[in-house]
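Our preliminary data section would be incomplete without showing what the modeling component actually yields. Below, a chain of 475 amino acids is followed by its predicted structure, encoded as tokens that our downstream tools consume directly.
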Amino acid sequence: MNPSQPNQDSPAAPALAIGTMLFAIAAAVTLGQKPGSIAAPTPGTAWLQAIETGADHIEPRALASELLAAPSDLVLVDLRPANEFATWHLPGALNMTVPDVCGEPGQKLFAAKPRLVVLYSNGPAHPGQAWVALNSAGHSNVKVLAGGLDDFKTQVLTPPSLRPDTDEATAKAELATFTLTRAFFLGDPAPKAPVFATDPTELARPTMVSAKWLHDHLGKVAVLDLRSARDFAALHVPGAQRLDLAKIRQKHDDRDLHFVADDALAAAFGALGLTVDTPVVLCADDKQQDPTMAAMALLRLGHRSLAILEGGMLRWATERRPLVAATTTPKAAKYEPRAGADDFTITTDALAAAVTAGSTKVLDVRPPEFFRGDKSTEARPGHIPGAVNRLYSKDVVRQDDGSWLRPAAELRKDYEALGLSGKDPIVVSCRTGHTASHTYFVLRHLLGYENVRWYAGSWTEWAERKDLPAATGDK
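Predicted structure:
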């Protein structure tokens, strides 16, 4: 809903209008006016028309959309007692009394010419009184939060599954958006020490960057969002473009496997406004294998100026960075790949030869039951003979403020326990190459392993080759 267009069908709208009219009488008396004079609009009483049209209030969800965009020209005024304000308040709100906001402190506030001032309390009483007084004084850029903070909590901060008249399908569809919204309003925005974010002066090699770094570089870097179309449409980083991984991979029966041809891949990135030298930041939710998979596509074409947002979209929201629904259309660019850039993808034949020669170590990052062969969705169960198994998600710690990789020392210790050192030739494999991209990126670009390759076809392709051996069990 457009915040400038009040929802006249809202049950709160007529109640608020009636309440505001009643408080108008009280305000008129307070201002030394006769109650009867309120009936006829006079200069300085344009608030009567605002009440009639519903322009006196803003609905909770509309206000939430405004605040999520983190505008600098919106002022929140919390009229509750100081002790309640100290317990919790909307981000950035000022705590003022009605006499304050209508007096000299309020005049200083309005002297800065904010686009919009929103008054709120637990209910409509005090905001309504202040609204009438301010509008009578000529301040037309003021609205009251409909239903007060109580309705805001119910409509915005209550899980979709617990809201009245919300069916299961709707609750499920809105969960991801709610998670970001809740993190924005209720999370702890305090700075978090980076785990792998390097926050470079210039983005020149594959790395991770913090939410602060990305915020500071908005407009200077391209942002590619790997989440679903629904989640992207609801809330995303300003200026971001959505990259659909399925559209840059080839279909193999019921799953996506190899990337499309390089020319098609380059065309897809060019359509998003990228050149091979455009600094790119990749972001997603808690599926870190999605931005790493997109990174593999870019690296394949010779793209080096790329980073992954550390902590993902949830950390971005927790730090109260701007989130918008408005989309932008990029200006298409000519993406010219660098020839010979892909020196990290290994084919099935090359891997088979290396396994036979004993010249490489294979790291399989699928769940243990699939590695052992207890479960299978491929042509054959099991794994590449000699491979070692470690589930990719063991690298990740999921918290209320995002998904984080474990510290480098812990990860190195785990990989060394598998017999994998930083100089060993290693091939990372999974089911379709997707989660293997995560482990490849961690080993090669974050931990600095020097000789790592990625098996794009992974077990799906190996299992279909009846001429190649398969092992079952733990080894």
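The two ends are 57 Å apart (CA to CA). Residues 195 and 418 are 23 Å apart (CA to CA). Preliminary results of this kind motivate Aim 1 of the renewal.
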